[in-house]
Write a structure and sequence with these properties.
Acetoacetate decarboxylase-like, four-stranded antiparallel β-sheet, alpha+beta, 6 helices, 298 residues, seven-stranded mixed barrel, 17 strands
């Protein structure tokens, strides 16, 4: 198999190498859905018709948004962590959402984007589940409501990726804590992750059976996550919609091998004090829509 070829494209004030002949090279994040539909790998695109792309202002100039992820696989591991350590990790006025007395939630999420506007890439996320900014009252009631609505707010602390276009877009347009590294991520027989550190060794590794998968009717299970972070000193919300097509879940899983190495993600998870793994969700087929950040009420 020949090595992939790359071509330079402008993004804001920088030039980024992208896959030659790939989606970004061809469409620059503004594809015609009818053209995408000609790709046998794309599948049904009705979900994306709900979110027409627009040319919108951003901190890097006008861009096409939202960003579409036509075929994706994801896994999320939800851990308990001490509230005291989560509070130290969060900037004011963000507040961790209580799950149990004295404990909040940390989400370790893995993403494999097989077909998307940015070309294929892998991503790892570490985020603290937070209260809806400005909310009051019972944490338990808010957690239950979030679970029922499948809508969660989080503050992302780490977001390594394995392509330069994904890094540049995340840093320049969203000011997310992204860096580029090697990520080996597989959803084949088992879920396998090897995240590489800056020295070429292992930062984080994971191996787990994939929970039995259930096929879902298109657009019958749409989840929403809202990232809350500062951009140029002001608070913003970035909303992601997920159309779940094939999904499995396991509560209190015990057959997971999680290996800490030497690197930023392992160091962060240890600093957060992650403990008991409450739940693992694995989606082996789905679609995502990533919106541009919008200013939040201060």
């Amino acid at each position: 198999m020949s090595a992939p070829q790359f071509t330079p494209v402008p993004f804001g004030d920088v030039t980024v190498p992208v896959l030659k002949g790939g989606y970004y090279d061809r469409f620059h994040a503004a594809p015609n859905l009818e053209a995408v539909a000609e790709d046998p790998a794309a599948g049904n695109l009705d979900f994306f018709r709900r979110f027409p792309k627009q040319r919108l202002a951003s901190r890097v100039g006008p861009v096409w948004a939202p960003n579409f992820y036509y075929r994706a696989k994801t896994a999320q591991l939800l851990f308990l962590a001490p509230m005291s350590q989560l509070r130290r990790a969060l900037p004011d006025p963000l507040e961790p959402l209580h799950a149990l007395p004295g404990y909040g939630l940390v989400a370790l999420s893995l993403f494999r984007y097989d077909l998307c506007d940015n070309d294929p890439y892998n991503e790892v996320s570490v985020a603290v589940v937070i209260r809806v900014p400005g909310s009051r009252g019972s944490h338990l009631r808010e957690l239950r409501a979030s679970m029922q609505r499948d809508r969660f707010h989080a503050h992302v602390l780490a977001l390594p990726v394995d392509t330069e276009i994904a890094r540049v877009r995340g840093v320049e347009a969203y000011q997310l804590p992204k860096w580029r590294t090697e990520i080996a991520l597989s959803f084949d027989e088992t879920l396998e992750l090897n995240l590489t550190n800056a020295a070429g060794g292992t930062d984080l590794s994971l191996s787990s059976p994939i929970p039995p998968q259930q096929d879902l009717a298109p657009q019958s299970r749409i989840g929403t996550s809202v990232m809350v972070n500062r951009i140029d000193g002001r608070w913003h919300r970035t909303t992601v919609h997920t159309n779940k097509l094939r999904l499995g879940q396991k509560l209190l899983p015990r057959d997971i091998s999680l290996g800490f190495g030497t690197g930023a993600v392992s160091q962060l998870l240890k600093a957060l004090g992650v403990g008991r793994l409450l739940r693992m969700d694995v989606m082996t087929d789905g679609q995502l829509v990533l919106n541009l950040p919008i200013p939040a009420n201060e």
